[in-house]
Write a structure and sequence with these properties.
The protein has 503 residues and is α/β, with parallel strands linked by helices. It has a domain at 11-37 and 83-172: uronate isomerase, domain 2, chain A, CATH 1.10.2020.10. Helices cover 45% and strands 8% of the residues. The strands form four sheets. Strands 6-7-10-11 form a four-stranded parallel β-sheet, with helices on one face. Strands 3-4-5 form a three-stranded parallel β-sheet. A two-stranded antiparallel sheet has the order 1-2. α1 packs across α18 (452-470), α10 packs across α11 and α12 (283-294) packs across α13. Mean pLDDT is 93; it is low at 1-31.
Length: 503
């Protein structure tokens, strides 16, 4: 735990500092927190003795495997130092932007021209309005874990927190953050046209955290925008050392990059669609559609789907051959506000939950690979909570006994990544599959301060299982349930993905 300098009264610029809380363990009891303990205390979200034992004895000290996020390999390679909390917290966090807009904050103080401190103060004025939103929990967990600050963030405390955290951030670099949170493995999200030079630098830096790329070929599918697609093809030609004029050339270039990613430790691909791709059609039709796109003609939505299906089927086959995991994030309805899209661009915080029909397309796509024994390890993430049972049931259709939990119902994603959504995903998976084989939580974040979300997940998990124990719904057996906690929080992911060993 990092300690700021304190006065005898335990204050830093008027900010309360988290004291070390003494836990006394016995076979069944934990010393309860003092009545005046801070909001973020050692038993936060842990509602009973069993939950507290599970978290403190089995989950708390485990390292983190964050196998899906959007962190910057440039900032990792450069061991970036954030100048202030606005840069670290607000610069790219559309969760916070949405809350600030809902609170009536003008865009100038969110993504606009206001100063960094003015934007932070606008966020501080919003935080008290986020009660019962996960942002309230995450904000105060991060203040406690990185800065030892347990004073609630609001208008009155904002200036003191701004100054105290700015001083601490001046000596806290990205590598320090990874060490503080015991991040063992971290997988960024990377375009196949990226050079991966920063990943080479990270691998040669001696950083204890293993950082690997993830293969995310979003731009390979965007033939509906001929100019942007052609620009991306030019970039891919440079990084793959391939001349691309035909569909076969594109597949050769992508396979070249797939191989290069593998050499740098990549073991996952990632794909986000409104619904699963179609099974592939004839290669000749797909080749004709690609030629049309390369000639600058705009392709129809149906042609775009055929193109996507062809590429995704090949990527799935490559993943299976390499032992990679394919992640499918399905169900987003993106860029709903044309106003924000025009003024800011994509990822402005105006994406939403879609209500697409998922089951038939997902079944057909998975079956198209499974019937030839070329379905890779797969994680299915749904954004619409109505699809929880569909995705959990679909995962069970394609298990093949080759390894435990080959097809996964992924962790609660995006709008579902909060206490209720996490519990719903865990309950659905428990009822329709094997919770014991679940590979656990990811941050899916652009912020280096977001790793306490793993702690948040672990507390929710332990509280859920501890409550089951207290009600007699699962055995009152700490060893049995504790081993389940350890597997979900670390062990299953460690064995499932096949990351390089001994580097």
């Amino acid at each position: 735990m990092v300690h700021l300098s304190t006065s005898p009264s335990g204050q830093v610029s008027g900010i309360k500092v988290r004291s070390v809380y003494s836990i006394t363990m016995s076979e069944s009891k934990i010393t309860p927190p003092a009545p005046d303990s801070p909001f973020i205390n050692d038993d936060f979200l842990l509602g009973n003795d069993s939950a507290r034992r599970l978290f403190h004895n089995y989950a708390k000290e485990l390292p983190i495997i964050d196998f899906h996020n959007h962190l910057s390999p440039v900032q990792i390679a450069g061991n970036h130092c954030f100048g202030n909390l606005q840069e670290a917290w607000l610069a790219e966090d559309h969760y916070k932007w949405r809350a600030m807009r809902a609170n009536g904050i003008p865009e100038s103080h969110i993504t606009g021209t206001a100063s960094a401190e003015e934007k932070f103060l606008a966020w501080a004025s919003t935080v008290p309005r986020t009660l019962r939103n996960p942002l309230h929990h995450w904000t105060h967990l991060e203040l406690a874990r990185y800065f030892n600050i347990t004073t609630p963030l609001n208008d009155e405390s904002a200036h003191g927190i701004w100054e105290a955290t700015k001083e601490r951030l001046s000596t806290m670099r990205v590598h320090d953050i990874l060490a503080m949170q015991k991040v063992e493995i971290l997988c960024t999200t990377d375009d196949p046209a990226d050079t991966l030079d920063h990943h080479e630098s990270i691998r040669n830096s001696g950083l204890p955290t293993k950082v690997y790329p993830t293969f995310r070929p979003d731009r390979a599918f965007l033939i509906g925008d001929p100019a942007a697609f052609r620009a991306w093809i030019t970039k891919l030609e440079a990084t793959s050392s391939c001349v691309i004029t035909t569909l076969e050339d594109l597949l050769t270039a992508l396979k070249n990059r797939h191989d290069a990613f593998h050499e740098l430790g990549c073991r996952l691909s990632d794909h986000s669609f409104p619904y699963a791709p179609l099974p592939p059609g004839t290669h000749a039709v797909a080749a004709g559609i690609f030629s049309k796109a390369m000639d600058g003609e705009k392709c129809s939505p149906e042609e775009q789907e055929i193109h996507t299906a062809t590429l995704m089927h090949e990527i799935g086959r490559w993943n299976a051959a390499r032992g990679w995991t394919m992640q499918l994030h399905l169900g987003a309805l993106r860029n709903n506000s044309s106003r924000l899209m025009q003024s800011f661009g994509a990822d402005a915080g105006c994406d939403s939950i879609g209500d697409q029909l998922q089951a038939n397309a997902l079944s057909a796509f998975l079956d198209s690979l499974d019937r030839t024994n070329e379905l890779p390890k797969t994680i299915l993430y749904n954004l619409n909570p109505a699809d929880n049972h569909i995705f959990a049931a679909m995962a069970g259709n394609f298990q093949d006994g080759s390894l435990p939990g080959k097809i996964q119902h992924g962790s609660a994603w995006w709008f579902l990544d909060q206490k209720g959504g996490i519990e719903a995903q865990l309950n659905t998976l428990s009822n329709l599959g094997l919770l014991s084989r679940f590979v656990g939580m990811v941050t899916d974040s652009r912020s280096f301060l977001s790793f306490p979300r793993h702690e948040y997940f672990r507390r929710v998990l332990c509280n859920l299982l501890g409550s089951d124990m207290e009600r007699g719904e699962i055995p009152m057996d700490d060893t049995l349930v504790g081993s389940l906690v350890r597997d979900i929080c670390h062990g299953n992911a460690s064995s499932y993905f096949g990351f390089p060993q001994g580097e």
